[in-house]
Structure formats: structure tokens, C-alpha cells
Amino acid sequence: MAGKHLKKKDNLWILFNGKEYCVGLTKEAQEDLGEITFANLPKIGKAYQAGDALVEVEAEKAVTEFASPLSGTVSSVNEKISENIAVLNDEDEMTAWLLSFKDVDAAEFDAL
């Protein structure tokens, strides 16, 4: 699709859709973790710097903390995760999205 750009960093994928930067777990992260049983997502409106602790994921193999790949403000979270954690175990890694950022410097994304 025009206007979409996908990058990967530290077992996270980042998709710019022309408006926001969506962040999710890569297929490799899903496989490394095994069955995911819990995810602690950030609050909407919270600002992060690249490298800050962003999301904690609990799975059968480990509890893993993922660092923010970008600096920005959380604009949305995947509400389906709280209703059904199994969406993070889906075969399609693009359904394993966690959150979206706004107020991101495009140069920071380009540098990934």
C-alpha cells in the first residue's frame, strides 16, 4: 500500500501508515517467547524516549521487556489483547500489534 513503511528492530516491527507508527511483535519474537499469556501495555498519552522500557510480555518461556524503538507519545493500544491474549500468538505477525505512537520524528524512524 502506498504511504506505508515497515521496519524491524529488536524483535519489534514498526509500521508507518502515513499518520501513526504502529508497533508489534515480530514472528521471531512470537516463536522465541512461545505461547504468550499476558502483556502489560502502556497508557495512552504517555511519552517515551527510544530505549525506554515500553511493554512487558509474559509467556511460557520467559517474561520479556521490550524497549521502545522510537521516541513519541502512545496514541492507541490494541484493546483486543486485554479481551483475548491469543491475538499475540496468531500466525500473522501483523495481528500481534501492541500500540501506536504519534509525535515521532520521521528522521528517527528512517534511521532504524
Automatic annotation (TrEMBL):
GO annotations of cellular component type: cytoplasm; glycine cleavage complex
What InterPro entries would the database entry show?
Answer: Biotin_lipoyl (IPR000089), GCV_H (IPR002930), GCV_H/Fam206 (IPR033753), Single_hybrid_motif (IPR011053)
This protein is called: GcvH family protein
Q: Gene of origin?
A: gcvH
Q: Which PROSITE patterns does the entry mention?
A: BIOTINYL_LIPOYL
What SUPFAM superfamilies does this protein map onto? Single hybrid motif (SSF51230)
User: GO terms for biological process?
Assistant: glycine decarboxylation via glycine cleavage system; protein lipoylation
Annotated Lipoyl-binding domain ranges read 20-102
Write the record's keywords in alphabetical order, separated by commas. Lipoyl
A Pfam family of this chain: GCV_H
What domain of life does the native source organism fall in?
Answer: Bacteria
Origin species: Enterococcus mundtii
